[in-house]
Fold:
Amino acid sequence: MKTTPGGLRGSFPVPTTDPVSGATISLLVESADGSSQILLDAGTGVLNLLPRLRPGALLALTHFHLDHLLGLPLLVPSGLSGILTARPDAATILSRIYSPPVWPVPAFNAPFALAAPGKPHVHGALTVAFHPVAHPDGCHAIRIDEPATGESLVLATDIEWSLMPPAARAAFAGFAHGATDLWFDCHFFPSELPSHRGWGHSSWEEAVDAARLASAKSVHPLHYSPRATEAETGDLRARFAAPTRPPVTPSRP
Structure:
């Protein structure tokens, strides 16, 4: 299984020397043989992924805040096979966002599919599952497994770890257990958390805690604050590269 990040920034895009660091959340997951593609969220990072995207890809959405949807109009010509969400009112929500006078043309033309609780959705060589996490207006972590290789990915963007009681953390750990790669929200530095309670985001320390609890093989930071400089995100990656249990590997911003 191969994962290509197209955007790793949170809230809104920012100018950086690295277009992936500056664009908002979107990741492309492909099966080992390249036959199956799943796009995770549709932030402005979609623009960086379009050259790799093929007709028949599935779009899976964690939630409906604008920074995760801004790239949706770019996908209209791409030939998506469907849009998978955990909300039955997804089509209504997106129609409200992308309609006149806010947006002049339809921004999606793929059929919607509702993820069944506790039952993975099969997309070619990959399976997709959703798990609720703490975030204003609701959000779901997404897990993708490739049975043929035993590899797995969990995307936990827009999660406020400190607001999840022990039972909720244990449930998330069960959902993410043994993930090959855990992509986890690192919007705030630890010192910023007390003044941002209820904002729906976590810190790099909490990402490592979640990875350890889930026995994930590696953890990667994403959803960088729009205020974070490239020097600060570089420091974040250096922290992730420090020895930990489980291993914590850096990823490009």
User: Anything to note?
Assistant: The longest strand covers residues 126-133. The helical segments are 19-22, 46-49, 90-97, 166-176, 204-214, 230-241.
